[in-house]
């Protein structure tokens, strides 16, 4: 009973009993309809929440993890790592109470005056300029980087990694048609932990879902408690 009370007060879980019941029933349905899979106990909660957020079971087939990526992300979150994102939609979608659990700051730079000025001066994209600014300011080091919108952001990030930048985890999930496949392939060859959605699919919603899954895992000590909650 004490464990259930603790979970109910945990900001990584739904606030109300009805909200928790709906979410956990949704997870049960996803588990049932998804069927067998080859993901680890830490990877599946991330994929499951991505499916939950989109009602798209194809993410079971197209989501890839570098070995140890979830563990790296959990360590970073629990150490208070910043979360650098390529779109305001991601920043707006993240739950503030969950971010406060470990003091994770969300940084979105595309509207930063220096980034805008750099993009205008170079003729490049704001996404490219944002990565260059983040690299110069040391914001990439040890950060969790979520890319759900701009392939140019991800390509620029991989170039920065090639120069020695070391984010703790990269969520490479840009959506679109131009440079999307190339950006994801480049990330999968980079020497950093990553989670990728293959092909053209992705988006800010997927990054938010993955981050919320990681935050819940971190809050629960790295253990997926949804099954225990349902059985309790």
Concise description?
The chain is an alpha/beta fold.
Report on this structure.
- This protein has 232 residues and is an alpha/beta fold.
- The protein has a single domain, classed as Cobalamin biosynthesis CobH/CbiC, precorrin-8X methylmutase (Rossmann fold).
- It is built from 13 helices and 6 strands.
- Strands 1-6-5-4-2-3 form a 6-stranded mixed beta sheet, sandwiched between helices.
- Strand 5, helix 11 and strand 6 form a beta-alpha-beta unit.
- Helix 2 crosses helix 3, helix 5 crosses helix 12 and helix 8 packs across helix 9.
- The radius of gyration is 17 Å and the shape is globular.
- The N and C termini lie close together (8 Å).
- Pathway: Cofactor biosynthesis; adenosylcobalamin biosynthesis.
- One of its GO terms (biological process) is cobalamin biosynthetic process.
- Keywords: Cobalamin biosynthesis, Isomerase.
- Pfam families: CbiC.
- This is Precorrin-8X methylmutase.
List the helices and strands and how they pair.
Blueprint: H1 2-9, H2 17-34, H3 44-54, H4 59-62, E1 63-65, H5 69-78, E2 83-85, H6 88-93, H7 96-100, E3 106-108, H8 113-122, H9 126-136, E4 144-147, H10 151-162, E5 169-172, H11 180-188, E6 194-197, H12 204-219, H13 226-231
Parallel strand pairs: 2-3, 2-4, 4-5, 5-6
Antiparallel strand pairs: 1-6
């Amino acid at each position: 009973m004490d464990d259930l009370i603790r979970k109910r007060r945990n900001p990584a879980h739904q606030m109300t009993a009805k909200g928790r019941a709906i979410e956990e029933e949704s997870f049960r349905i996803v588990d049932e309809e998804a069927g067998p899979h080859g993901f680890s106990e830490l990877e599946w909660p991330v994929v499951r929440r991505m499916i939950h957020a989109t009602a798209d079971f194809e993410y079971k087939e197209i989501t890839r993890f570098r070995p140890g990526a979830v563990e790296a992300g959990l360590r970073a979150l629990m150490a208070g790592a910043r979360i650098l994102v390529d779109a305001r939609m991601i920043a707006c979608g993240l739950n503030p109470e969950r971010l406060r659990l470990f003091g994770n700051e969300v940084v979105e730079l595309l509207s930063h005056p220096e980034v805008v000025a750099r993009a205008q001066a170079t003729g490049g994209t704001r996404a490219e300029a944002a990565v260059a600014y983040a690299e110069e300011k040391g914001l990439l080091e040890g950060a969790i980087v979520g890319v759900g919108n701009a392939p140019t952001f991800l390509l620029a990030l991989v170039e920065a990694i090639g120069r020695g930048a070391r984010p703790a985890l990269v969520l490479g999930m840009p959506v679109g048609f131009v440079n999307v496949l190339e950006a994801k392939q480049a990330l999968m060859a980079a020497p950093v932990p990553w989670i990728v959605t293959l092909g053209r699919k992705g988006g800010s919603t997927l990054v938010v879902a993955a981050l919320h899954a990681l935050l819940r895992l971190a809050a629960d000590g790295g253990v997926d408690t949804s099954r225990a909650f349902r059985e309790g």
